[in-house]
Design a protein that fits this description.
The complex is a heterodimer of chains A (376) and B (300). By secondary structure, chain A is α/β, with parallel strands linked by helices. In chain A, 45% of the residues lie in helices and 10% in strands. In chain A, α16 runs antiparallel to α17. The model of chain A has no long low-confidence stretch (mean pLDDT 84). Chain B has 300 residues and is mainly alpha-helical. Chain B has two domains: 46 residues, no CATH class; 235 residues, MetI-like fold (Orthogonal Bundle). The chains are: A alpha/beta (376), B mainly alpha (300). At the A-B interface, α2, α16 and α17 of A face α5 and α11 of B.
Chain lengths: 376, 300
């Protein structure tokens, strides 16, 4: 962000940008204090669409539609993400960075099992089958075919996300989440991945370390994992011969991946809305995206040249192009109530994954609690 | 003969000293009012509003309180808080007394043991949570020991709703008993040794000496430990955050965690304030009961 501001200031000598930082733990608190206290702030960033919806709900975000049309802003590179984060048809924030999920796999385990590497067009059923073929051994030498959950996160829901089901407040989408939970449990039950209950401590959450040690053949997560794996391998913390593949999709559904966009907004009380918007446009546009790329951020702006820059000089993993070649949709909805609802589902589904509650009860409880605690 | 009450003005030098004392106390009083009394008062006012940290700030009367008692998560967290308090307070105090008695002996390296027992109190809760999660893991040392003993289905500790609260309680008792023991030890060392000698001469055995001299002697300390332990048990938060985040499901959701969730993840500050006030009320009530009850058993 410092470099973005510097580059912008160099082009616009009459503007000076005063950046304020806060650690991610304090960020919401600090922002709440500044905005709520009528502090002097022109624009701010947020790491997720539900956050945008919350601040829009609170009436502190300036709608950007007028500024977009009056300045004739070029938004072609971020249009895809932009379409999924409108609120009541209005644009309140522009995405500057995002992420892109892929499947990471250990080539050696595939070779040892004599299984072909995944193709770019495959389904969750294929994933399940492959996980079965790749599982072997027992005890300390056990190799699991897959890992698709972490006890403290909502990772298990990702298959539903790839179908566009991101919001559990909607009953149909909630049902897709339940199917994703069932998918996760079926892999544990079949022994293709560890039991949920066995991972209920922090040591179980170190999926990168375990992948490096060759304990899992496949798992899926965002583009940031490449950096983590490559750094760890360079530091000698493990050696794994890995590659990435496109994220699977459900039968009959389009192949697309998910990402969590980070957004920039103009504060409603801003004294310089035009200038602030111009800066945001710069950061989220083609020029800003290059600066972001140079600093190992994954920009939301995607065009042929950013794709090329992203893949340039990167030899590992071999198919890194999947990161930029897949269509990216937002993993989270623009709904201020999302966090509350998500937490309810997390609590209830953890009981299902632990085997303490069946799927029907879980879905019924989620619906009941969402209607009681969220929809009012 | 009736006593005559006469108002005597304090001598000038005492009055002067009082004024000096007030000046010395003033920084503390100001800090207390700004940092404790005012926030408490504000929270009380907020508990009757729907404040979301921003614009919404309407007076909603008692509706937050009414809503709380229809909120299943609140009721579960209230129940868990009570269960947790009822389990941890007696155990932490009992083991505290036991440890204090063990530490109240004179041999050279006893100070090392006192330090060791006190260590959990000065260790970061995050570290404690991590280590205990490993100890209580499904195939961790505790369960391996249980299996070695012949238990076929050892409990799934923090990954089952049945045992999660118990696990947290065990860690909590382990953590606080050392602190309680140090305070009780100070009480033990204040008991007049002449009393023991006299009792020995009268033929009292060690159990009788414990019941009739030691316990009454340290009863003010026990009372202090009981009250502070009760308050900290009601307010339990850090250990939940570090070990279970209220889970699995809502099995270890406690009031303080509920307040945290409602305020800092859902931004329902008004609602959270009313839950915090109910917690405050419960602690006040328990403390009052203890203060009334102490007249019967505490010897000053």
């Amino acid at each position: 962000m410092t470099k973005l501001a510097k580059a912008y200031e160099e082009e616009h000598p009459n503007i000076s940008i005063n950046l304020q930082y806060a650690s991610s733990n304090d960020y919401a608190t600090k922002l709440t204090t500044v905005l709520g206290g009528g502090g002097n702030i022109d624009g701010f960033g947020i790491s997720s669409p539900p956050g945008l919806a919350e601040y829009v709900d609170k009436g502190v975000v300036l709608p950007l539609d007028d500024l977009i049309s009056s300045t004739g802003a070029d938004l072609s590179g971020i249009q895809g993400t932009l379409d999924t984060i409108k609120i009541d048809g209005n644009t309140y924030g522009l995405p500057y960075k995002t992420s892109s999920w892929v499947v990471y796999y250990n080539k050696d385990i595939f070779d040892a099992a004599g299984v072909a590497y995944p193709s770019d067009d495959w389904t969750w059923e294929d994933y399940y089958e492959l996980a079965g073929k790749l599982t072997s051994g027992s005890g300390d030498s056990k190799i699991y075919g897959s890992l698709n959950f972490q006890p403290t996160s909502m990772w298990w829901r990702v298959p539903a996300n790839t179908k566009g089901s991101t919001n559990p407040i909607d009953d149909t989408q909630l049902h897709d989440w339940m199917l994703a939970a069932q998918f996760c449990k079926s892999m544990s039950d079949a022994g293709y991945q560890p039991e949920y209950a066995d991972m209920a401590n922090d040591a179980g959450a170190d999926y990168t370390g375990n992948f490096l040690q060759g304990k899992y053949a496949m798992f899926y997560t965002g583009d940031w994992e490449i950096e983590m794996l490559n750094t760890a391998i360079a530091n000698g913390e493990g050696n794994v011969n890995y590659d990435v593949a496109a994220i699977p999709h459900y039968e009959g559904q389009p192949a697309q991946t998910i990402g969590a966009p980070g957004l920039m907004m103009v504060a409603k009380e801003s004294k310089h809305p035009e200038e602030t918007f111009d800066f945001i446009k710069f950061c989220t546009g083609a020029e800003g995206s290059k600066i972001l790329l140079e600093n190992d951020y994954f920009p939301a702006w995607q065009d042929d040249s950013t794709k090329q820059i992203y893949c340039e000089n990167k030899t590992s993993p071999e198919h890194i192009n999947y990161i930029v070649d897949q269509k990216i949709i937002s993993q989270v909805p623009c709904d201020a109530q999302y966090n509350t609802a998500q937490n309810i589902v997390k609590e209830e589904v953890s009981l299902y994954l632990l085997g303490e509650q069946d799927l029907e009860t879980t879905e019924a409880n989620c619906k009941k609690r969402i209607s009681e605690e969220v929809k009012k | 003969m009736s006593e005559k009450k006469v108002k005597v003005k304090a001598p000038a030098y005492i009055r002067h000293q009082r004024i000096t004392a007030i000046w010395f106390l003033l920084p503390n009083i100001v800090g207390f009012v700004i940092l404790n009394v005012y926030p408490l008062f504000r929270a009380g006012v907020l508990s009757f509003t729907n404040w979301d940290g921003f614009n919404k700030n309407d007076f909603v009367g008692f509706s937050n309180y009414v809503k709380l008692f229809q909120d299943s998560t609140f009721l579960i967290s209230l129940g868990n808080t009570l269960l947790y308090t009822v389990a941890t307070v007696p155990l932490a105090v009992f083991f505290g007394i036991l440890m204090a008695l063990l530490m109240n002996v004179k041999f050279r390296s006893i100070k090392i043991f006192r330090t060791i027992y006190f260590l959990p109190q000065v260790t970061s809760m995050i570290a404690i949570g991590l280590v205990w999660s490993l100890i209580l893991a499904n195939n961790g040392p505790v369960n391996q020991f249980l299996m070695w003993l012949g238990v076929h289905n050892p409990p799934k500790w923090i990954s089952s709703t049945q045992w999660a609260l118990v696990s947290v309680e065990i860690v909590s008792v382990w953590r606080s008993m050392g602190y309680n023991a140090i305070i009780l030890l100070a009480g033990l060392q204040g008991v007049n040794t002449e009393l023991y000698e006299a009792a020995k001469l009268d033929g009292a055995n060690s159990w009788q000496r414990f019941i009739h001299i030691t316990l009454p002697g340290i009863s003010p300390t026990i009372f202090f430990v009981l009250v502070t332990q009760m308050i900290s048990s009601c307010k339990v938060f850090d250990i939940i955050m570090a070990m279970t985040q209220g889970g699995p499901g809502r099995a270890t959701n406690v009031l303080a965690y509920f307040v945290y969730q409602k305020s800092f993840t859902e931004y329902k500050f008004g609602y959270a304030c009313s839950a915090a006030f109910i917690l405050f009320g419960i602690i006040m009530l328990f403390t009052l009961i203890q203060f009334i009850g102490q007249k019967k058993w505490v010897n000053y």
